[in-house]
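2024-03-11 09:14:02 DEBUG pipeline.ingest accepted 1 chain
2024-03-11 09:14:02 DEBUG pipeline.ingest length=361
2024-03-11 09:14:03 DEBUG pipeline.predict start
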Amino acid sequence: MRTALVIGTGLIGTSLALALSGRGVRVHLADTDPDRSRTAAALGAGTEEQPEGRVDLAVIAVPPALIAPTVAGLQRRGAARAYADVGSVKGGPRRELAGLGGDTASYLGSHPMAGRERSGPLAATADLFEGRPWVLTPTPDTETEVLNLVLELVALCRAVPVVMDADAHDRAVALVSHAPQLLSSLLAARLGTADESAVRLCGQGVRDVTRLAASEPRMWLDILAANPGPVADVLAELAADLEETIRSLRALEAADEAKREGGAAGIEAVLRRGNAGRERVPGKHGAAPAAYETVAVLITDQPGELARIFADAGRAGVNIEDVRIEHATGQQAGLVQLMVEPVSAPVLIASLRERGWSIRQ
């Protein structure tokens, strides 16, 4: 791939343009908002100049409802050898393109499973896709050259290609991406009317669950409008689970001991099903999740403290597998949770204590 055209210079479009430009591909940028394409170009993502002839690959990074008409328009003017989109919904745009008379053989739907709560070109980064799954949805009529060019795009962005059926992809992202966004927003919305005394008690658990609620509403409305059925199916199943859980909780308030026992059994069943589901979430490097030991260390909010604790762990010969920080409300301190292999935990604890760190068991 020597040349590419990126239509849409938001977070995803600008990020992949930065990755391609950084690896020697000449990238042409286009956006309905000239300020966005100008910003992306200023960041080094490519040039706003129109390509002189056909580019090797046109990448369409626009809202799902605009994918098919954008691809069809590019195809009519012969803008590229191959066309790919990076939208989060795959089945609908392909069917719409066929309905518009577009060439489905030169088009391949794809979806990089990466993103941030922030949007726009200023949030973009060339390493956004590194190590992340990138779904490809070829069909029997997809041209080999098209598939190879999109695979090259994935490789240049250092992502991991995953081949799926388009409709299966849409059902999958409804469960692992779209429904979680709505659930995060629903819980965060409860905080909007909560008493201030309750909000002040928010800890890391609430921060984790509501992180997605910071996302751009307009962008998510576009996504959800393109995949409403599968998302509604997931939420309907969750609603049934919630109703059963509510009944179990009410039973815990009953005077009858048998009802309380039944309520407790219902709640335990939900929690155990949650344990089982959580264990299926891929762990580090996509492998099966590992059972790490958590070493919690009190840390002050001072420059260089995180670097110092990581350096001290390195001196102890311990690899930090993952890390989380829980901030103390109203104080310049918090807990840094270091996830390590169980056999390494005693070594790390002893070493950090020797160096003056305060360990919280």
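2024-03-11 09:14:41 DEBUG pipeline.report Residues 3-164 form a domain with the Rossmann fold fold (CATH 3.40.50.720).
2024-03-11 09:14:41 DEBUG pipeline.predict end
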